Amino acid sequence: MLGTGAALPDPDRAQSSILVTLDNGRNFLFDCGEGSTRQMVRANINPADVPWVFLSHLHYDHVCGLPFFVLSSWVFNREGRLAVFGPRGTQDFVDHSFEKGAFKLDIQARASYAVRQKNMQAIRPEVTEVAPGLMYQDEDVKVHIDLVDHIPTEITDCFGIRFEAEGKVIAFSGDTAPCESMVRLAQDADLLIHECTFPESFLAHRAKSGVGTYAHTSPLQLGQIASRAGVKSLVATHFGHFDSTSPVIKRAAGNHLPIDLMGPDRLDEVASDIRQHYSGELRLAHDLMRIDL
């Protein structure tokens, strides 16, 4: 679990990012929020050794780390092109980030070094914009995706994922309100990694105030999803700063969170509410949590 936070710059949590490593050493990255690359290095993973990334949706806390990841991998001598899978709009995001976009001058400057000039493929990600169904398959893995309920589809698609490898199944929700597609993707999974952005009290506050989206899954709802899907193990993640003690976070969140309720004890509330419907193995995610299957 490289990053387990949400949209604000949290001093204790990087933004959403999950790294899966197979027994043969192959790495697969799911989402790439701010801090993802630094967290890889802290986990003793060379960014250049991560050749594949899936973006669940295009909210900035899930994708803003991608340019830094790509450029850092180039500096770290990545071989070949990064494979990027994501919803419609991903190609536009990539096109506006590198040689034709925001980092054009940086790339021109670094490409004056011969070793970089010989390796320009490393900053030219190969993008595949995806649709529900079997998204990807090779000799090691099979990846199914489906639409989930977060951003209105007229803006962009949001996806949940089912990742099968080495006889195991991992499901990842991205961001979503409760939906049947996520129950299907997680059916009998060995591990479900699911967003649980706000406690019940915080969701009620946001719904009443009308500030921000509340198209997220509450702890009570997450317990129901995990139970219905029959998952063996559950990780709740993408925590929306409700556990933070940072004065800066509290000032910034004052217009959309009940800041008088914020603090680490909210995690106990989250676990207790999940447990009302789910009795299997449960973890509340923290950055650099490692899970072995």
From TrEMBL:
Keyword Metal-binding: yes
Alphabetical list of SMART domains matching this protein: Lactamase_B (SM00849)
Required cofactor names: Zn(2+)
Record domain Metallo-beta-lactamase: where: 14-205
Top-level taxon of the source organism: Bacteria
Leading EC class: hydrolase
Catalytic reactions on record: Endonucleolytic cleavage of RNA, removing extra 3' nucleotides from tRNA precursor, generating 3' termini of tRNAs. A 3'-hydroxy group is left at the tRNA terminus and a 5'-phosphoryl group is left at the trailer molecule
Keyword Nuclease belongs to the record: yes
EC assignment: 3.1.26.11
SUPFAM superfamilies xrefs: Metallo-hydrolase/oxidoreductase (SSF56281)
GO molecular function term, any single one: 3'-tRNA processing endoribonuclease activity
Keyword set, alphabetical order: Endonuclease, Hydrolase, Metal-binding, Nuclease, tRNA processing, Zinc
Residues of the active site: 61 (proton acceptor)
CDD domains in alphabetical order: arylsulfatase_AtsA-like_MBL-fold
InterPro entries in alphabetical order: AtsA-like_MBL-fold (IPR044094), Metallo-B-lactamas (IPR001279), RibonucZ/Hydroxyglut_hydro (IPR036866), RNase_Z/BN (IPR013471)
Binding partners and assembly: Homodimer.
Cited function: Zinc phosphodiesterase, which displays some tRNA 3'-processing endonuclease activity. Probably involved in tRNA maturation, by removing a 3'-trailer from precursor tRNA.
HAMAP family given in the database record: RNase_Z_BN (MF_01818)
Protein family membership: Belongs to the RNase Z family.
Protein name: Ribonuclease Z
Lineage: Bacteria, Pseudomonadati, Pseudomonadota, Betaproteobacteria, Burkholderiales
Gene: rnz
